[in-house]
Amino acid sequence: MNILYFAWVREKVGVAEETLNPPAEVQTVTQLMDWLAARSPKHAAAFSNRASIRAAVDQVHSAHGAKVSGAKEVAFFPPVTGG
Amino acid sequence: MDIRVQQGAFDIGAETAAFAARNTTSGAVCTFIGQMRDFRGADKTSGEPIASMELDAYPGMADKQLADLAAEAQARWPLDDIAIVHRFGVLKPGEPIVFVATASAHRGDAFAACEFLMDWLKTKAPFWKKETGPSGSVWVEAQASDDARAARWKET
After folding, report:
1. Which domains does chain B have, with CATH numbers?
2. Which of B:125-154 have CB within 8 Å of A?
3. In chain B, which end has fewer C-beta atoms inside a 10 angstrom radius, N or C?
4. Which of B64, B86, B141 sits opposite A82 (nearest CB)?
């Protein structure tokens, strides 16, 4: 699974992208954030305020309760500010 | 339909002329240009000057999301054509960030679709602004007013 980070989430994690194989019990966006947060202090800092983090599963905006099982790409980022 | 996410600058005159030229049978062409402000805060007097801005983008998703928004606009209004150009990378004050154009038989539909596209782009397109001024660099926070503007277009 490719995990992508954008904006301050990327800055806090320290990398833009990583390829990981979460265990089968990681089935939702929330569970993936829990699993990622346990990887390092930087990940933990990035995911400390869940309310300010949005997710996209295979490039589609997804709620924290959405399924990630089987996804190829999951991205984490703050609310968008383009335009 | 013309959807582009690009790092390089674009020419607002050339974009407008090209869009109008390929839609000469449309009675109405509406364009919106978002440009980079030179201050942050409520207004220029109380705000802080900004020297430059970095626009972070999620390239694959941005193209897809803008195309989805354009398809939604076409489903809601009788449009002949849509163009959306959005930049990423480093920008200076005054530079265009986004160009949205709609073509329709009548101005009401062109105006409405153009505003809808901008309102939804602001809350859905995966771009993030980081502004650099005298006190350093800050990621711009999303505005509740943008969510409220986008919510007006939710179908009831």
Report:
1. 2-150 (3.90.1170.40)
2. 125-130, 139-142
3. C
4. B86
